[in-house]
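tool_call: predict_structure(chain=1)
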Amino acid sequence: MDEKQLADLVVSIALIASTGYIVNTLRLFKQQSTSVIAILNCIFFVVYLFPVALDLLLRVPDFGHLEGYNDATNHQPTRMFSAIALSIAPVIWTEFAIHGFRYQREKSRRLNQPSTSSLWSKPLLLAALALLPLLILPLAPSYSVYKTYGPLLAKVGRNQMEELSFHAYLNQSILYSMLSCFALLIGILRSRGKMRPFLAGAIVFILAIDCFLYGKRAVVALAFSGLVFCLWYTEALRKSFLIPLLIVSGVIISVYSHWYQIEFGRSRASTFEELYDSFRLEFSRDHAHKFVVFNALFDNSDTEILDYPGESLVIYATLPVPRSVWEDKPVSYAMSLTCAALGDDRHYLGWGVTSSVLDESIANFGLAGCLIGPLVFGLILRTSMQYDLAVFRMVTTVLCLMLMMVHLSSCLPMLLGWLVIFFKDRIKHFYFHPALL
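tool_result:
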């Protein structure tokens, strides 16, 4: 048995074991408190484990000029270690969340913890946040760029920093708007008023505007996911319709994504092999995980991602510091990952490959990040399970999906929203807990 055959065997065993575990966790859909874990495990299978299986069933993709990705995905020890690390990831966050929740539930019973309040009691605040992108849009340096759909870089140059800077702020407001729309929709679907169809339609219309202004596919997928979650969580959608609706949504998003690639020049694929390579680069996340594992296993200065452990955390902590003040401020983790995959020195490119918390934790903390990343998800899931609050669980679902699909800087608005809801309840719990009176 040669090295490749051994790697295929190890990867196959890891895939079978992890897939079996994820299938077993589908029973968590039965309870709303644990449904977030089941959703996260399903998405993890689609974007991480299924692409690894395609390596065995079809072939390892060719990532073109991203030579670092090609080296990592064809390195057999890296394939084995990455597959093992990915196979235990859902076990870590699922068991940590569930066992931690059981302990916390018993502790809460002893302390008679009061139920948390609902953000739905502040509909005017949520409505203002939902309309926030439309309120700041008149401040755009060039309003005309938002008259057509598409990514901003397809409409303006990379050197038009004023437009790019405004669009970054607009994108943050759009994420808050979508979060508020989902919260409002949960309240609307749970009401029995005659205006419910009109208000629900207005929310969907605002979400469509948000997707149009953002101009990227990730937000469209987020909108579909949020709508399905709201329909399922409020039981406005029968459980028997959930799987068919997810399949239809997936088909719609896939067709839309293919049109997006062709329309905005993101894909020049004409053969099946080229389509396959493009699909793997765009939609799967396993290649970034293999690349950071490859760098953690073998110290290679040509593909070094970060200068020191925890550097990307320092970058996030210093985001408000402008480059005019800190001239040597390092570029973001996503940009560093892109430069390393290209074999270039770290510098601003204007574009970047997609990363996630799972690979970023490894880039920051080495092989220990294989445990730290899943534990981050476990802690978030464990916290959300403690509260019977629909908005908090919805934000947790969206936050976890974003942390798994995009780099951390894109998730900051959702993360801040999650922390606001959490600490709001913690402060109330501290001052009004019966055990403290």
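agent: The first helix runs from residue 3 to 24. Proceeding to next step.
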